[in-house]
Specification:
Elements (H helix, E strand, L loop, with lengths): L3 H14 L4 H8 L3 H8 L7 H11 L5 H8 L15 H25 L2 E15 L6 E12 L4
Antiparallel strand pairs: 1-2
């Protein structure tokens, strides 16, 4: 029996070996590169049609067992430890550690007491060329959900 983690490793290894870009898989699936990558990394479930399109783009024929795993609503949260050890993920963690209270304060000042949805949500990751060194641009766009009084 294959685990979801093993299937993710298979997908990533095949994609890497064959020099396939997530953006190309996303185009074939018809969703954003961020969403498709999250799904194929095990954080979002896909439909049979999306799995077939992703498999075609990757050059993979998913078995019935693998298709079922990709269709299953996942247990979300993919970090192997409470504090990330991967340098890139750690830097994002550091951004939240340093600026999280600032983000929270400014969001509450603008919107009131509530949260930003990670369900009604989009993300865009892009590259901005810069003579001093290219920049990573990450845009998180989530619906504001106020806490209700009852």
């Amino acid at each position: 029996m294959t685990t979801r983690a093993e299937l993710t490793e298979k997908i990533v290894a095949h994609k890497t070996f064959n020099d396939i870009k997530w953006a190309d898989v996303a185009t074939a699936v018809g969703q954003s590169k961020e969403w498709v990558t999250a799904a194929l990394m095990g954080q979002i479930s896909l439909s049979k049609d999306q799995i077939e399109k992703a498999g075609n783009a990757l050059g993979l024929n998913f078995s019935d067992e693998e298709t079922a795993l990709l269709m299953t609503v996942p247990y979300r949260g993919s970090l192997p430890s409470a504090v990330p050890t991967d340098p890139l993920i750690y830097r994002l963690y550091e951004v939240i550690s340093v600026y999280g209270t600032t983000m929270k304060t400014l969001i509450e000042e603008e919107f009131g007491d509530g949260i930003m949805s990670a369900i009604d949500f989009t993300m865009d990751i892009s590259r901005e060329e810069n003579p001093a060194g290219d920049r990573v641009k990450i845009v998180l766009d989530g619906k504001f959900l106020p806490y209700k009084m009852y």
